[in-house]
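Posting for a labmate who doesn't have an account.
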Amino acid sequence: MRAVVVSQWGGPEVLTETEVERPEPGVGEILVRVHAAGVNPVDWKTRASGALIPWGPVPAVGWDVSGTVEVAGPGVTMFQPGDEVFGMPRFPHQAGAYAEYVTAPARHFVRKPDAVDHVQAAALPLAALTAWQALVDTAGVRAGQRVLVHAAAGGVGHLAVQIAKARGAYVIGTASAAKHGLLRELGADEVIDYRSTAFEEAVSDVDIVIDAIGGDYGQRSLKVLRPGGHLVTLPGPDAVPADADGVHTGWTIVEPDYRGLVEIAALVADGRVRPVVDTVLPLEQAAKAHEIGELGRTTGKIVLTVTAPASA
């Protein structure tokens, strides 16, 4: 099968399309024929250095998958061949989503909602689960709370805005002015142009801050939080402020989550969450997808399309 692998750690040019052996599902696993694969910042960050990820013998990036079940392995009863599914298999272990086929535990996938096609579905799993786990599982967002989402038009941010709104929160987002219209369409109640306004001077009494940027954003965000509020940092532990008296702070990393994906799929089916896809490229242009992503200007997500032949 075709797959994009990492020839060595480095820039986008190290991504190489090659032929590898098709995986076979083990006990409790499914084989998925990939129709589309989402591209995320973790993809290019790990491609650059190889850090953090337990790699297989042939390093291959990618975790967002939407496709069709080809084979249900021994013991799998929840899916059968032909089912359309999407998920975030194996993270943070290697999944190799930039390929014609992937295998993973069946519960790393859920059924794809009819409301979205495979390209849109592939834009969801990692970013939506990151937002869900930060807002719902970590911060316990509830109706009436004030939520501030940094980088609100980005991959995680635009989904965090919608999830928070669907949970009844009052949502504030930071983004460049050109993206304010989209964010209001997605449900943001207030939008701040970070280029012209210091958010900590424009916002107060916030219950939850989702920081997808890092740098000094965490420290600055402490100024807008209510006592007992939550600052959830996504870039890494180094971005968590050390002096955060009276509020909850911490770093979270996404993990496969069947129940979370079911909840996300339900929001998509109900029209309360929709993925925004910025760029669609074929699998063989994975390097270009990384080049675009690393510019940091993407609205929503980048997705690779994969045309895998069905098994005989």
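Reply:
Got it, the structure tokens are right above this. The longest strand covers residues 29-39.
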